[in-house]
Amino acid sequence: MNFSEFQVYFQVGYQHIVAWDGLDHILFIVALCAMYSFSQWKTVFWLATAFTLGHSLTLALAALGWLTFNKQWIEFFIPITILCTALLNLLEANKPQTTPYLRYAMATIFGFIHGFAFSQLLRSMFQQSGQSLVYKLLAFNIGIEVGQILVIGFVLAICFIFVRLLQWQQQRWSFVLSVLTLILAGFILFQKSTELFA
Known about the structure:
Blueprint: H1 3-18, H2 23-33, H3 41-63, H4 71-91, H5 101-128, H6 133-165, H7 170-197
Helix pairs in contact: 1-6, 2-4, 2-6, 2-7, 3-5, 3-6, 4-5, 4-7
């Protein structure tokens, strides 16, 4: 696998996160780190890593054709993952933060679902060439990871501005961000529901 081919798969993965088509994935990442401040970036990093592990597994298995799925059902479940994460944020808003084992598990499990969506991009590309399959998956995953890091960095930077500079309480910031993601995810879920059950 040459560098130009690596760039192609890296770019596909990266664009799938940062482009408008990746809004549902962006919203999940935003909901995932909405509870945390800039100083808690390590926790956010490990949550994102758990999400990456989850979607990497199903991405590989589905892209190789070892797992089959209904595209419309996956698109229906993705906004549900966002809703669940945002709701958990709201339920835990007034509780002291503990080691987020539940959130690690949730990020991994929900990563499984998002991995199916990622794999849709790769199936046709993999069918054209079976060579360097591992490296193509690696390049695609690195692209996704870089996109996720940029989104997380942006969210934490905005959090820093509101909490440190504008003197918002962390709970207020988390509440506003979680409610916004909840509303947007609800809209996406309604849209996908009408497509699925029409």
